[in-house]
Design goal:
- It is a single chain.
- The protein has about 300 residues and is of the alpha/beta class.
- It is about 35% helix and about 15% strand.
- The chain has a nine-stranded mixed β-sheet.
- α3 (about 110-120) links the parallel β3 (about 100-105) and β4.
Length: about 300
């Protein structure tokens, strides 16, 4: 029996709720890659200070107290955060119903089993090309073999779910979509293709490099069922928590509420209050134009865990 496969390409926006149920937690702004759509160069600078382990534990406790049920750890590159396994384990202990990580997988081969043992449920791996030379160019020096080893390690660790993310750029990897799909499906992985966002560095690329969702679906039509894309409940659009202890209700603005002092003091209640203040600043989706707003160009995708 032949089973039709479904390929997530885009998800519909979900209406605002009374409080956020899911967040992205950017544990570090550091990254060992410098992807063209994310960073201007490898020497673009980093935050001067970051939360310590105790503050991150308090941050998670505050998020749980605020009603958050799903947490995704990002960066920069979260595997550069030395205590990632301990932070994951603490999130699991707090009872978050979904704990996930997004990674470039350059360091995943050595840590996949440890993360699984800590209780990590799901993992998403960024993989923009299967061609080693193109991958190195897109990431400014990344090694494809390291990432593929990370993919293998993630599968061996038997996470509940493994996904691949590919940002599609015209004239770069836009001819690889079918190859990436077959690579993923052959391994039981869900592939996802992302439009380059007009945020930070991505804003420079949009005029010439944007490949729209409609174009991607047309190219992949022979591999897709003829059906409407369906959003995963509570998985998008995501809410973001930056590496400096700042809670952001929207990726495209720098508005929000600081929870740094509360996190460093271990005050979960104050963190929950900061989440509430940030949520009140969430833009009205009826008038707010999101990534096309001028404020989006001033946001650092690497720093906020995009």
């Amino acid at each position: 029996m032949q089973v039709a496969r479904r390929l997530p390409v885009v998800t519909d926006a979900t209406p605002a709720a009374a409080a956020p149920r899911s967040v992205r937690v950017s544990l570090t702004d550091r990254c060992d890659l410098a992807c063209l759509y994310c960073r201007p160069s490898r020497s673009d600078g980093y935050l001067e200070s970051r939360l310590d382990d105790g503050a991150w534990r308090a941050m998670l406790e505050g998020l749980a107290a605020a009603g958050v049920r799903r947490v995704r750890f990002t960066g920069g590159e979260p595997l550069l955060f030395r205590s990632l396994e301990a932070v994951v384990a603490h999130a699991v202990e707090l009872g978050f119903e979904d704990v996930a990580v997004t990674t470039n997988a350059t360091r995943l081969a050595a840590r996949a089993a440890l993360l699984r043992a800590a209780g990590l449920q799901r993992i998403t791996i960024s993989l923009d090309s299967l061609d080693a030379a193109r991958f190195a160019r897109l990431t400014r020096g990344g090694r494809l073999d390291e990432v593929l080893a990370g993919v293998d390690a993630a599968l061996a660790a038997r996470f509940d779910e493994v996904k691949l993310n590919a940002v599609v750029l015209r004239g770069e990897n836009d001819a690889e979509l079918a190859d990436l799909v077959r690579f993923a499906w052959a391994r039981g992985i869900v592939p996802r293709f992302l439009e380059v966002m007009p945020v930070g560095e991505g804003a420079r690329l949009v005029p010439d490099r944007l490949v729209t969702m409609r174009e991607m679906r047309a190219q992949l039509a022979p591999l897709l069922v003829d059906d409407t894309a369906v959003a995963d409940p509570d998985r998008g659009p995501a809410r973001y928590v930056a590496a400096d202890g700042f809670v952001r209700p929207c990726l495209s603005k720098d508005d929000g509420a600081s929870a740094r002092l509360a996190a460093e003091a271990g005050d979960a209640g104050a963190i929950a209050a900061a989440v509430g203040r940030a949520w009140e600043l969430k833009p009205d989706g009826l008038v707010w134009k999101g990534c096309t707003e001028e404020t989006a160009r001033r946001v650092s995708m690497r720093a906020v865990g995009g």
